[in-house]
Amino acid sequence: DTWRYAFEEALEEVQGKFAQKFKEEIEANSDHEVQLFPFGTLGESADTMEQAQAGILQFVDQSPGFTGALIPEAQVFFVPYLLPQDEETLQEFFRTSTAINEMFPELYAEQGLELLTMFPEGEVCMSTQEPVHSPADLNEVKFRVMTNPLLVESYQAFGATPTPLPWGEVYGALQTGIIQGQENPGFFLESTKMYEVTDVITCIGHNNFTTAVMANKQFYDGLPEEDQLLIQSATDAAFDYILDYQAGLQEESLQNIREAKPEMQVNILSEEERKPFMDTAVQVEEAFIDMTGERGKAILDQMKEDLEQASQATSG
Amino acid sequence: MATTIFSIMIVLLLLGFPMMIPLIIGAFVGFYSLFGGFGQMETMVQQLVAGIRPASLIAVPMFIFAADIMTRGQSAGRLIDMVMSFVGHVRGGLAVSTAAACTMFGAVSGSTQATVVAVGSPLRPRMLKAGYNDSFVLALIINSADIAFLIPPSIGMIIYGVVSGTSIAELFIAGIGPGLLILVLFSIYSMIYARRNNVPTEPKASWGDRGRAVRGALWPLGFPAIIIGGIYGGIFSPTEAAAACVLYALILEVIVFRELDLKGVYETAKSTGLITAVVFILVAAGAAFSWVISFAQIPQTILGGIGISEMGPIGVLFVISIAFFIGCMFVDPIVVILILVPIFAPVVQSTGLDPVLVGTIITLQVAIGSATPPFGCDIFTAVAVFKRPYIEVIRGTPPFIVILLGVAVALIYFPQIALFLRDLAFKG
Amino acid sequence: MSNDLDAASDATQTTATDHSDTRDDISALPGVLGTIDLAVARLEAVLLAAGVLLMAANTIANVIGRYLLGSSIFFSEELNRILIILITFAGISYAARHGRHIRMSAIYDALPPKGRRWMMVLIAAVTAICMFALAWYSFGFIKTSAGQGRLLPSLQVPVWWTLVWVPLGFTLTGIQYVLTAYKNVVEDDIYLSTNVLEGYGRDDEREV
Ligand code: NA
Ligand code: NA
């Protein structure tokens, strides 16, 4: 059969790499063909999600943050400092988390989707015009965020002036000075050329951009067991591949940026400098619970527990 | 499937159906044959609505509104009187000014449609009055609007830059050369046209008259100040600048010049809404149709068969140009970029072509496409805004398209047209 | 009605988009139906104008908020999206009423009057069918969307609320084309729409 798979990034970006590996695995081990549809070719993120729910697409990659309109609990990934800042712990977390591997699949199933996996895409860093070492440095900085209430809350708590702006206008707005900052994972700062129009990159470890791959549930449940196993093992292979690919990707992207623009300042904030930013997390957690109620709280608590276990497993 | 769909669309088009119908039926047939029935038509509706979602489209009704207020009142007339006092005695001077105004407007707007409206609305009546033929005027306006896509900022270049991983700053600079070349060639053609058709000139204005004309235009000169100062001063995005122009136009015409009462404002807003709807339903239907093309992987199928990997760089650039030109005849330019750029990426890389050059060529083709029949947003906008029949709007376009294609070919053989400024700025 | 002089042929007229053809709405229907039709036309017109004015106000307010009050309007973009859907779908039926939809009419123009009249019947009938089909499927789309419970991130209102004008607009447009087909069948003149007679032969009336 021909299976169709849409994702939110370009073919050579992280989601595209994952999809290519998935396609390669499926096609090597079966007669099925996988067609890949990168960002924008079948509509925006919300469109491809609906198409997957309608069964037109068999597979779709959508980041939980964008799923928030459908599954509010998925916005937990916007709560700052919830995910491990250290790479080894992060990978352990994604492999073992009960919240991710058991609780989220149920929420996605309610929307007719089989959650295949979630994986990290890289640490989100800020790119600004002036160096940022503390929340005070973000004062009066108009900072572009996606129109998500939790992101707005976060950047308000960080001291910035969150400013919504359509993605297509961000580059120009940084160039002319309507806004003075935006955030994205390292590879995206590189591929979208945000470094061309900003002077400083600051990593404060507040978030790692997470994405999720899912299948249409009716399609998945209707498959013979061998095909389900095929999809599972292709997903596992692509997951391992993407974690390997991830290792060092952030440094590589930042290095490429430094080469393309030698005067670029890249600041990785120290533990001590991060402290005031980390203190704001409580406020955003409360906003998250206000929005999502009991179910959201249960996910948040479980994720904290999973995090605890992951850091014990990697430190011990 | 593709052949059937395109044939049906062309026939319906020629029979005189409203242009949304060929697109809608094309999409209907596509969905029906892709999914073996009417089971997935809701996705077609989804894409119809998605087509009019991009935030950048908001600039279109805003510029239509502002331009309409200005032309109904005194602002536009005063601005043009000023220009005429300087160029009225030159044969073809007004046509050259129109092309130049499109170029200047392009420096603040990435939208060719907004350029058609903002420059065309005030200047077209004056050109007709000056004795130019309407088909020349319409063609000049929609084709000069192409320049806006090449002169930064350009939404096409931003999207190409992101999809292909090319420096957007370099693309922006590379667009200036071809943009100015087109302006020069259009200006030469306009002057030849004016001479051939004996477009009358006005007596040369004295410096006293010019001074009076400038004074009369002082208030309306606030428009370029708002747009250029506002955007480059970091106050507005281009869309917001359009809305600010609406506010300023209302202040001028309602309070300062007292040309428009509230009833007039209401009528203007209604007329703006009507024009917007007529154009946007085509954008929406086009999006649904584009989705079918993309989902059925039609470009991949067609391009897979022509053996592009054996061609040299020049051959590859020609194939790319032709593919984008044909694609944009039927499908929304942005979608064409999103679909075709990844398909061509490997061969661009293996032939060692400069991605900035490729991006400039693609942007030019996409701009040409939006003014090329049958489906072109600039044409639709001109039909709706100027209320002229479709055929008449495109009647005068051939010479302009020949010039544009000439520039496209020149760009392939003399890449320095685009790369000269880029090398000066980045490789110095 | 398109008996106003065209902006192009009358060079002294400087309005870009004269609107005299849409100032007075008339109905093709008799009696109560006509009254309802007229009320709908009035409503469409008001929505069009209000949509455009609100869009301008909303966009400007966002700038003012950002600079003077130090905080953006977070729902500004969402509101503009809602308005653009409203304008487009309230506008297509209004445009159908006034025969303003864009067409390219190469073969049509070459036909004799009688042929053009029956061609117009066919065009209007097929267009009406397409509009009703789209109305039906957009109604289905809204139902699906409502079932999924998707919310707009900032306004926190259900997405399907923003779409209600879509099936309504298609339905009203379909009705206009049915009436156009009917008028062309029963009358000898050629009607581009219920309100607009095809002013053939006089170039300045050949509107789109
Ligand atoms: Na531009
Ligand atoms: Na075109």
UniProtKB/TrEMBL annotation, chain B:
Locations listed in the record: Cell inner membrane
Record domain TRAP C4-dicarboxylate transport system permease DctM subunit: where: 7-417
Pfam hit, one: DctM
Sequence intervals crossing the membrane: 12-35, 47-69, 136-159, 171-192, 213-235, 241-260, 272-294, 314-344, 356-386, 398-421
Membrane topology value: Multi-pass membrane protein
Function, in words: Part of the tripartite ATP-independent periplasmic (TRAP) transport system.
Annotated protein name in UniProt: TRAP transporter large permease protein
Species name: Jannaschia seosinensis
Gene: siaT_1
Automatic annotation (TrEMBL), chain C:
One GO CC annotation: plasma membrane
Primary localization: membrane
Transmembrane segments: 45-67, 79-97, 118-139, 159-179
Pfam families xrefs: DctQ
Alphabetical keyword list: Cell inner membrane, Cell membrane, Membrane, Transmembrane, Transmembrane helix, Transport
Keyword Membrane among record annotations: yes
A single MF term (Gene Ontology): transmembrane transporter activity
Extent of Low complexity compositional bias: 1-17
InterPro entries reported for this sequence: DctQ (IPR055348), TRAP_DctQ (IPR007387)
Function (record text): Part of the tripartite ATP-independent periplasmic (TRAP) transport system.
Subunit structure comment from the entry: The complex comprises the extracytoplasmic solute receptor protein and the two transmembrane proteins.
Record protein name field: TRAP transporter small permease protein
Source species of the chain: Jannaschia seosinensis
